[in-house]
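Quarterly update, task 2.4: 3-phosphoglyceric acid-bound model.
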Amino acid sequence: MKILIADSFPASHSESLVRAGHELTIKPELDGGSLPQAIQTNEILIVRSTRIDENTLKQARELKLIIRAGAGTNTIDKECASSLDISVCNVPGANSRAVAELVMGLILSIDRQIPSNVMDAKQGLWNKKKYSTARGLAGQKLGILGMGAIGFAVAERARGFAMGVYALSKPGRSPDAENRITSSGIIQLDTQDELLKTSDIVTLHMPATETTRRMVNREFLSKMKRGAMLINTSRGDLVDEEALVDAMNSRGIRAGLDVYNNEPGASENTFKSQVFAHPSVYGTHHIGASTEQAQIAVADGVLAIVEAYINGKLINQVN
Ligand code: 3PG
């Protein structure tokens, strides 16, 4: 089977595909400009965040399956893929721990101002006074919006730091999820307003959909406590960045962000963004899932999808 890998992928797993007899092309550098040409004769495309648009799909004459090596599929035109009879499958859950670890890293970074400490240190500055203002995490209230695999992984870690963890109650949650919430000591609140008013830190773990797009708007931010933290490691589309900049300037909101409006699709690029550069933001480079452990777990999931496809089955189809 001809398979194109258009993003980084563990060598151990691409070797497995070759050993299984597949004809592999590995081109992590492909982008919207070069992908349509490269994809033409391939039956399977394995991809991370590289954008797959209508133009690419229409040139992909042999393509039957796109495997998103990760969870979010907002970068793939699924509607167009469906109309061309191309299946899209993803690997949800495999990178949850990695994202949750980054969430804790961002929270600790903001509370202790670790990146600023380090930047001053590199300049030869010693400023124990300036950096002795952290509040500490124990007893702080963390509101989690989105109680999927990542939300739970964040909750478990936050409880390890003795934080109070809050989530929204949701009618129709499975008994398993309900038990897990209760036994993890997560307190459920009925409304988002309550959660925003209660939380010292709000972390977003929702997919980008028409409903969640720009959900963090002026109204949302105005309900957060003064000086509260906003953590976003999900999708940049969830946040109205202009409103966030205003809230940071006027209400002392601090943000830990891994994702942005119009962030680059390529893994190396320049990026000008009003929030990336803002002094109240510690911003990372959409690296939530980019640990070796997570990428191996995701690649295991990709191989399972390829094998199932060969046997006439689709795992985790999203279109
Ligand atoms: C995901 O959707 O799985 C994460 O956001 C990771 O995306 P990436 O594979 O492009 O790093």
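Highlight for this quarter: The chain has a mean pLDDT of 96.
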